[in-house]
Design goal:
Blueprint: H1 4-27, E1 37-38, E2 41-45, E3 56-60, E4 64-65, E5 72-74, E6 81-84, E7 88-92, E8 98-101, E9 106-108, E10 114-116, E11 119-120, E12 122-123, E13 126-127, E14 135-138, E15 143-147, E16 157-161, E17 164-165, E18 172-174, E19 180-182, E20 200-203, E21 205-207, H2 213-248
Antiparallel strand pairs: 1-4, 2-3, 5-21, 6-20, 7-8, 7-17, 9-10, 10-11, 12-13, 14-15, 15-16, 18-19
Helix pairs in contact: 1-2
């Protein structure tokens, strides 16, 4: 088999993977607090006894995330919050651990549990539970205040405080569930971050996705054409191999 097939095949596979990332970003262009995924490719020289400097395959680099802020939109809803500057909201991950998100559309389920996208919001003592039917408001420091049903403003009480963290220079990793976690330490476990009193929330506002729909559409077209080019190389290599076989089969 012609060695060019391996080079073109590795490029086609990475282009397909990149197209999946671009499609995922485009699908979340309107998701609150979403951070775009990054996917890059690099040339890797082929190793071997008869390797030539011109032989190279394509491999993916370490996947990353675009942490640039998204646009702020005023909604006027009391339970819509956005983080001002750096910071993250702590939520409970599916495995029971702690994870972080920039999404701020808070909801209260039928049991009074404060949720974000189906994940319980973490407070000072665990998941936050609020009185059902109460009118809630969120302070700049994450403090939740509630007024009981049928009561006046004088009955305002604090019912919890959202845990806000700032990882600063600590690297974050996106999980398959879309939530972010710190990279594991020396013992192989990710340690929950401490609450940061300097992180501030803006009530009645949502941070949108940092994905540009136009740029993502252009990237999708570019990746599709790159994939077509690599498949064309594979097709040409196959045609060359067939012609060579025909020449060798000529009886002289």
């Amino acid at each position: 088999m012609d060695r060019i097939l391996y080079t073109a095949m590795s490029g086609a596979k990475q282009s397909m993977d990149q197209q999946s990332v671009v499609s995922h970003n485009l699908a979340n262009a309107s998701t609150a607090g979403f951070r775009a995924q990054l996917h890059a490719m690099r040339a890797v020289p082929v190793q071997g006894e008869a390797a030539l400097p011109t032989r190279a395959s394509v491999a993916a680099t370490t996947p990353g995330t675009d942490f640039s802020p998204g646009p702020m939109t005023t909604t006027g809803r009391e339970l819509d919050v956005a983080i001002e500057g750096n910071g993250w909201i702590a939520v409970q991950a599916p495995d029971g651990g702690e994870a972080y998100t920039r999404r701020g559309d808070l909801q209260v389920d039928g049991d009074g549990l404060l949720m974000i996208a189906g994940r319980p919001v973490i407070g000072e003592g665990g998941p936050i539970i609020v009185p059902l039917g109460s009118q809630l408001s969120v302070g700049a420091d994450g403090t939740l205040s509630a007024i009981g049903e049928g009561q006046g403003p004088e009955a305002l009480v604090d019912v919890g405080r959202i845990k806000l963290v700032d990882p600063e220079a600590q690297p974050f990793r996106r999980g398959d569930d879309g939530l972010f976690r710190p990279l594991p330490g020396e013992e192989g476990e990710a340690v929950a971050l401490a609450a940061d009193d300097n992180v501030r929330l803006v009530s009645g506002t949502l941070e949108g996705s940092n994905v540009s729909a136009i740029e993502t559409m252009v990237s999708m077209i570019d990746v599709a054409r790159r994939y077509e080019m690599q498949m064309k190389v594979i097709s040409t290599a196959d045609e060359n191999a067939q012609r060579a076989n025909n020449l060798l089969s000529i009886q002289g």
